[in-house]
Amino acid sequence: MELDQLDLRDGGGVYKSTRDGVTVEVPFAIDISKIDPARRHDSERIGQTDDGVIVLLDRYASRASPDGHCANGIESYVRAFSLQERKEVFAALAESCLSDKAGPDAEVAWEAPSGFRVGEQRYAVQAQKVVPLAT
């Protein structure tokens, strides 16, 4: 059985990957002040390389700002985790109501054998690293 799970712990995030009864935990930085703890936080696997880099779409509800902005908003990041190195090797904002850096619902897709796309930007996963490709 395969399972991907994102948790919040100790002021940051932890990605857990369970494969064949073995669980690997990878800590990562996340600004928990922007997350509404009472609402859903989920992930979707986008793809995986043969050498153990997992690419996920991390989606969570935004905490409303004092002026009510983003009361029902969503934040989403594309994150890549190296199970071999036990670290996050990539994070890019895909959707945000709290930032003007991302538009609504940037399409995220896996491009076999070892790449993915966030909106129009394409990336390759090479030697446990994520490399942006020319557009």
Structure report:
The structure is a single chain. The chain has 135 residues and is an all-beta fold. It contains no helices and eleven strands. The radius of gyration is 15 Å and the shape is globular.
Question: Could you write a compact summary of the structure shown?
Answer:
This protein has 135 residues and is mostly beta strands. It contains no helices and eleven strands.
Question: Top keywords for this entry?
Answer:
135 residues, mainly beta, four-stranded antiparallel β-sheet
Summarize the SSE layout with pairings:
Layout: E1 2-9, E2 12-19, E3 22-28, E4 41-48, E5 53-61, E6 74-82, E7 87-95, E8 108-111, E9 115-118, E10 121-126, E11 129-132
Antiparallel strand pairs: 1-2, 2-3, 4-5, 5-6, 6-7, 8-9, 9-10, 10-11
Q: What are the low-pLDDT stretches, counting only 5+ consecutive residues below 50? A: none
For the biggest β-sheet, the strand order reads 4-5-6-7
* Rg (C-alpha, Å): 15 Å
Give the strand tally. 11
What is the CA-CA span between the terminal residues?
Answer: 37 Å
- Helix proportion of residues, in percent? under 10%
Characterize the main sheet. Answer: 4 strands, antiparallel
Number of helices: 0
What's the order of the H and E elements? EEEEEEEEEEE
Basic shape = globular
